[in-house]
């Protein structure tokens, strides 16, 4: 206790009030109730009452100190051209601004990456569903084919369904494309060679075609038509002589 009193005596300095500017007062008078709230009337657990008591005490100190400062001719208002230096320098504020900007850009990049991952996940999900649907359709068709081969079923509806589904897929995928016919090369080959199918033994006669003689023309059969002889005569006139005939013709010329 003696040490505390000694320290307190050392802290005390006999200086004028303008150098100390200490004011110790109670709370200011409430203008509404025209009375000062007592210390015992403040509930320390009530935040509003506690803060209001601090505010009233500071207000009372200001009302007491301002007249004394004016009496001592001490200015209490800040001039219009007053310049107060910031607590932090411009370089420090620039660093803070750059850090905030980089943090915001990192958050934007993270959000974009999150959206891309979600889109990829959705795309993979759709692709998986399509593959599963195709596998299911293929499995059903194979089961139907096996049943048909074993004689358990005599229906070929699965072929119509397969054709309809393939046409639907083509229409869905190429809805924006204009359907075009075969090109000139394809049309020429179709006209020349046909459209595929069985070609072996395609020209063999059958019993019906053998008995059908309605299209038989004796005049033109076996190159005996009227035009055929004329053609043979014309060819005979233009035919080159044999080797012996040419040799005899040379000997006569000599």
Automatic annotation (TrEMBL):
Required for the processing of the 27S pre-rRNA. Residues 102-114 have a biased composition (Basic and acidic residues). Keywords: Coiled coil, Nucleus, Ribosome biogenesis. Residues 29-48, 97-126, 156-254 are annotated as: Disordered. The gene is Ebna1bp2. Residues 164-181 have a biased composition (Low complexity). Transmembrane segments: none annotated. It holds the Pfam family Ebp2. InterPro entries: Ebp2. It is found in: Nucleus, Nucleolus. This is EBP2 protein. GO terms for cellular component: nuclear periphery; nucleolus; preribosome, large subunit precursor. Belongs to the EBP2 family. Residues 115-124, 229-254 have a biased composition (Basic residues). It comes from Alca torda. One of its GO terms (biological process) is rRNA processing.
């Amino acid at each position: 206790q003696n040490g505390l009193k000694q320290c307190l005596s050392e802290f005390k300095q006999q200086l004028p009030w303008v150098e100390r500017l200490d004011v110790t007062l109670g709370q200011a008078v409430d203008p509404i109730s025209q009375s000062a709230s007592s210390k015992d009337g403040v509930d320390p657990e009530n935040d509003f009452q506690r803060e209001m008591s601090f505010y009233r005490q500071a207000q009372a100190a200001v009302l007491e100190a301002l007249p004394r400062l004016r009496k001592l001719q001490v200015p209490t208002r800040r001039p219009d051209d007053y310049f107060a230096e910031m607590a932090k320098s411009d370089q420090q504020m620039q660093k803070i601004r750059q850090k905030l900007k980089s943090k915001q850009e990192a958050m934007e990049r993270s959000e974009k990456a999150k959206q891309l991952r979600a889109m990829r996940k959705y795309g993979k999900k759709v692709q998986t569903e399509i593959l599963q649907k195709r596998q299911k359709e293929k499995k059903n068709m194979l089961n139907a084919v096996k049943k048909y081969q074993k004689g358990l079923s005599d229906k070929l509806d699965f072929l119509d369904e397969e054709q309809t589904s393939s046409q639907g897929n083509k229409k869905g995928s190429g809805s924006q494309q204009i359907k075009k016919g075969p090109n000139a090369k394809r049309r020429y080959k179709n006209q020349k060679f046909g459209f595929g199918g069985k070609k072996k033994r395609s020209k063999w006669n059958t019993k019906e075609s053998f008995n059908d003689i309605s299209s038989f023309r004796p005049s033109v059969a076996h190159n005996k038509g009227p035009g055929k002889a004329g053609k043979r005569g014309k060819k005979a006139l233009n035919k080159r002589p044999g080797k012996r005939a040419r040799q005899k013709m040379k000997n006569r010329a000599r």
